[in-house]
Amino acid sequence: MDYITDPRAIEDKSMAIIDELLGPLPISPEERKVVKRVVHTTGDPEFAKLVRWSPGAVDIGIKALAEGASVYTDVNMVRVGVNQRLLTSKGASAVCSISDPRVVEEAKKTGNTRAMTAFELLADEMNGAVIAIGNAPTALFHLLSLIEGGRCRPALVVGTPVGFVGAAESKEALVQADIPYITVVGNKGGSTVAASIVNAMLLQMP
């Protein structure tokens, strides 16, 4: 059996197939690259119908990352999925504190999830950052409360928590919040989707 083995050739062919499947869309080239990366990651063209963003959000994210914004994530799966080489080229990093002993201890005391607790403890560091939440609706809900309370002001929130308890509702709350956002509506999403959105913006940095 003949098959393609070159990684770049595989990705190029995949993106060409996705382009054909998507057809024309009333979005910018930068936004289209985000949608394509999500479809590429999930293998599901239907995701193109689910991706939403606030006006200018993709450009805001690209600019923030190009200027050295770090990426704060709810779980390590999102952190490791982000392109570290491109982040470090701008002097930035991907940060997840869910396993930090301080977070673990505080979560035990409060009864809150560790993802919530991590964002609570990191709030002062997240001004101007890109936040990527792919797993925990509680983290997204809590982040929005921190933003509303003036505790932090990220440049962009990528919110794609997945599941049947709070995921869709947390993303609806994100859409209503006064913050630039990129999300996927409904129960679908996940850590790979969040990372793919961040990577799509990293790949477009000048």
TrEMBL record:
Pathway: Cofactor biosynthesis; adenosylcobalamin biosynthesis. The keyword Isomerase applies. One of its GO terms (biological process) is cobalamin biosynthetic process. Residues 10-202 form the Cobalamin biosynthesis precorrin-8X methylmutase CobH/CbiC domain. Pfam families: CbiC. The keyword Transmembrane does not apply. It comes from the Bacteria. Coiled coil: none annotated. Keywords: Cobalamin biosynthesis, Isomerase. Signal peptide: none annotated. GO terms for molecular function: precorrin-8X methylmutase activity. PANTHER family: COBALT-PRECORRIN-8 METHYLMUTASE. Belongs to the CobH/CbiC family. This is Precorrin isomerase. The lineage of its organism: Bacteria, Bacillati, Bacillota, Clostridia, Eubacteriales.
